[in-house]
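USER: Note each token:
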Amino acid sequence: MTISVLGAGAFGTALAISLSRDGRAVSLWGRDTSDMASENQNTRRLAGFAFPDSLTVQSDLELAAKAQILLIATPMQSLANFLSEHTHMLDGKTLVACCKGIDLSTGLGPAEIIRRTCPNAIPAILSGPSFAVDIAAGLPTALTLAAENAEGLQEALSTANIRIYRSTDLTGVEIGGALKNVVAIACGIATGAGLGESAHAALMTRGYAEMQRFALSRGALPETLAGLSGFGDLALTCSSEKSRNFAYGLALGRGATLPEGTTVEGKATAKAVSNLAKNDNIDLPIAAMVVAVLENHLTIEEAVERLLARPLKEE
């Protein structure tokens, strides 16, 4: 099967490198690929990893979209516009969303956005605990691929260093990947503010409970949230400064900022999921406090006080 990765950020580039390393013909499309083509690497997003010979850098989206499998590696908040602008090229294809989040304007995850904008496409989601630098370096990584019929895709996208598990629970996979970013921001804030490792552990644990609560209310399977795309991704994202969401929270907690232009998917997702939870009367206190801190409605100290002052209850 022919494969194109649409989106030349760090993660899309890493996937393209891994997929092409064992001889697959893979195209990597980006809006500006001139530097990548000349330098044979993505110096702006993933420097130090040379492109294999079978990886083609492509600036023509129409040519890249001719592949049988298209991995969409755009930022989550850009996904709907990207698909809408290029529906004529993408509809009818197998579209694998590699972004994690909930669209702020519609409240939809990537699978539903694909269904609505490209109704004849086959939607799938690739998610799980993974850093771009690890994938590009050839380090062992395990991911979950969710689709109605994932067997063929699972084989096509597995590589020497990426082990893929399949699932039919698109809802659970996309919600796990989205909400773990919100919890990672909370954990980063707590760490940056010097609240200690016990607070970090408590936020991860109660954040996981929020992920389950919201996902199950949307019809997800509980075992999905206990897997790679739920608990696994949460554990990684909340524990390393390689995570942009954790690093963003860490900077907030320290009173600093990240470099301008850094993509932090959890910011928009926190607001989107809080809006959905409020409409459906679902209790997500950590997500709500993240939104309150990000929008300067509460200080970090006030947010912690409110979480600690919540009514006592059974776990």
In short: The radius of gyration is 19 Å.
